[in-house]
Design brief:
NADH Oxidase; alpha+beta; 8 helices; homodimer; 5 strands
Chain lengths: ~190, ~190
């Protein structure tokens, strides 16, 4: 299903095509395709090339990680994310490699890596749906994540499925057009207006 | 100048080609190309579609913003960034639209928007170099940025220039190959290893 962004300016097709569905097919993702996603992620830029991004991933019906990641999701997300063949927990390293100070751009850099992953996914007919709705302390306990790292999102990834299999409230969201603020509210060539 | 990422897996050409130079040409960027960059940025995903990204931009020799942004940069960055025809200050909105709580993914979402902008730039033969090295409190004063917003990076953007015009130490960095940690250090299909 296509939900192209309605842009005023001619943006790249991958950016235009990317959206966050809830209906995934049960088609498995080949291992080399999964690794290509992560390879795309790590070639994002980061402050002083610190690369403060880490990814714990679980493939459905393979090993223990899928269930462990799934179990951290809030109920609303569990209802639909169970159809995705791949779950990825994204993690930021909060302290700098070079000294023990806070890396203030760790989350920003992680976001760039995940954006790269999403663009690469779109290029391989995959879809990503990022979630903030998961239990962060449970994630920390489950995977023994030390305090200088923080889990930020869980991403459900897969090929597109059948929206008719979604519950009614989710199906409505699935079919709703994508929307964004007007550019004028976001960019400032003179004074900044909050 | 090309500095392709040396990837093991076949990532998208735009991701492979993107890098952060210091040598920009004095070729101006057409206004509609600038707006296309921002249009690409805003179609990134964000938590609850809050779109916590804002951009103050300045075009060289047009209006007051270029100089104002430039003046916030640390000296090292001022030396080379002066050749870029476009400077963009990226800003995150730290509180949620829906309630006054902290938006814990604001920086992460901003990073995704800037990654989109960078991919779009690459697609239009432009290069971006993001900088954390600028005076954040000076930025806050200069643009009256309220406390629920925070300036995160300044991005220098332009067409590629002549690396021979850079000082020797910067030229060395310009020609150095891009590098990343091995994937094995970054992704975990079993236990997380910090």
């Amino acid at each position: 299903m296509k939900k192209l962004a309605t842009t005023k300016y001619p943006v790249n097709e991958l950016i235009k095509s990317r959206w966050s569905p809830r209906a995934f097919s049960d088609h498995k993702i080949p291992k080399d395709v999964i690794l290509t996603l992560f390879e795309a992620a790590i070639w994002a830029p980061s402050s002083r090339n610190e690369q403060p991004w880490r990814f714990i991933y679980g493939v459905k019906d393979e090993g223990a990680n899928y269930k462990k990641i799934y179990d951290t999701l809030v109920h609303w997300n569990q209802q639909w994310a169970k159809s995705a063949p791949l779950l990825v927990m994204t993690i930021a390293k909060r302290n700098s490699e070079y000294h023990n100070e806070e890396n203030t751009t760790a989350l920003y850099d992680l976001g760039q890596a995940v954006a790269n992953l999403s663009i690469q996914a779109t290029d391989m007919d995959l879809f990503c749906h990022q979630m903030g709705g998961f239990e962060k302390e449970k994630a920390r306990d489950t995977f023994n994540i030390p305090s200088n790292y923080v889990a930020v999102t869980v991403v459900a990834i897969g090929y597109y499925g059948d929206p008719d299999k979604l519950p009614d409230d989710m199906k409505e969201l699935e079919l709703k057009a994508r929307s964004r603020y007007d550019l004028d509210r976001i960019i400032f060539n003179e004074d900044f207006k909050p």
